[in-house]
Amino acid sequence: MEHQSYNIISPEHGWIIIAGLSVLWIGLGYYWGRRAKSMDGYMLAGRRVGLALGTATVMATWVTSNTTMLAPQFALELGIWGMIAYSTAALGLLLFAPLAARIRRLMPRGYTSGDFIRLRYGKPAWVLFLLISIFYGFIWLISMGMAGGILMNAIAGIPYEIGMSVILFVCVAYTLFGGLYAVIGTDYVQSVLILIGIVIIGVAVFQLVDFGTVYADLSTDKPMLLNALLPASIMAVFNNLLFGVGEVFHSNVWWSRVFAMSQKAGRRAYLIGGLIWLPVPVAAGFIALSSGSIGINITRPDMVGPLVAANVLGQAGAIVVFMVFFCSLASSLDSLLASTSDLITQDIYKKMIKPQASEAQLRKASSRIVLGLGFVAWIVCLPRIGTLADVLFFAGPLVASTIWPIATGLFWRKANARGAIAGMIAGSVTGLVFYFVVGWYSASLIGAATSMIVVVLFTYLFPGTFEWHKLDEKTAASNA
Amino acid sequence: MTFPYRTTTFSSWYLSLVLILISSLNLVAGDQRPEFRGKYELMSRDGHVRLRWQAVGPNAIYELQQSDTPAFDNAETIYRGPDLATFISGLPDGVYYYRLRMNDGDWSEPLTLTVKHYSLQLALTLAGLGAIVFLLTVALVLKGTPKAIR
Asked: Which pTM value belongs to this model?
């Protein structure tokens, strides 16, 4: 690992903050987890989550380590357009709001995004979708485990392997105790801390960094970052937008929250959460552009956000920065562990392996899956492969290829299984070809475009006649 | 060439030997040229690059220079410090040369970076395609919204 000469707080202070927050999350997770007496409670927080908690969990989950660490990396690599490109991910949440209402209406007792694909398109499409979704969830998990290690190393000088292990352990522990109750409850506290921290950091950075100097330095040393026609960043804008839409539309992280919230709360929570999230990447990105003026050497681009913020704000500010990053990591890691575990428990264990499983057996399986996910993520994170962008954007074309199969599946009766399968395969393959030939800037964009063309073509050629009531599986079963 | 530390007493001779050893050690340290890690011919399509170099010894201060000529005319020091890597971004099309030294010693072999951005035509075409996909997705969702919230 390259030596980085800016460890802002001492490892001792870092450990004190980590220990304090870890005890808080595990304690709250245990406390809220006591409510989870049934599987509906454990997986979907009793399906009674209101607007305030719903908005907080949407916002906190989307303010991931990728927002606080990758958005600055985007700005440092791609300039002004890079910041805008990252903030377009808010459109994923905003566009999902109407879908949330539709999902809740069509599937009042659904559990996972996999349920929808199975009931709407049948088993082959379901298996393909699960492969994509679990692969993406795992990649996201790895990128955040890595981010935890990088963050603690950059700010407090804690060795990467130890920092990464601690954050994974803490999130696995409280998710294990409390399921979605614990996840949503801690998300609320974490979102409040994140917002307070971002306001403090934002105000301090805008007061301490001179815009004129930053602009002048960029013009001289990094002129392409101010160039509106920087080709890579032009491509990145719509690529990132479609990646974000694909992430939200398909991932069980967002579907499980829809099933957990009431119908009215779901749509509003996604709208408000998206609007609150929108300026966060721009603020995070701006501070990266000032790294040259401040005179900080950046050894890895994914370190730029925490390093600049902590350096500008000094010791006290660094503690705020550390807490914000730790909260943003935890709020996403727990969500991902819970929702991926739900997907595997419901769609693989219950539907494929043990259909007659009791609630106690499902709960046990779910806990083991959370533990297994955490362990495998830990093994993969250890060697610290690539940068966050390299890791995350590899899954881009896969998730972007699910946008049209899901959106048309929710609104078009004529959308059909052949189109959904062909769209996901064609979109994933062409997107990955572009990932390796052109770069990640184009992979999600091509994946989404190909999938859209294929889905529309198959809908026109082989129109289906789907009956919406089939999506309400339990009602259909009881009527039968 | 005369021996500079010629002495007549044992203690002076001993002192001279120590001084020779120290000066030869300094000479060796000065000869320790840092090396970049990886290839010395790099290509970037997006104007950024991460340069890494091998650690030479403890307490080393590295100096990294950038120039647009292989002779390093008008070279600019872009990093000076103990780190073993730096990230450079925002470079326009062109050929850039980098060299490195430790504690004001000898310079390393130069590293060459060629920046050739993606074609603007390709970028605008892909962005246009992305805009169409996005707008059609918005249209699909908005058209279905009344159905969704009814």
From this structure: 0.84
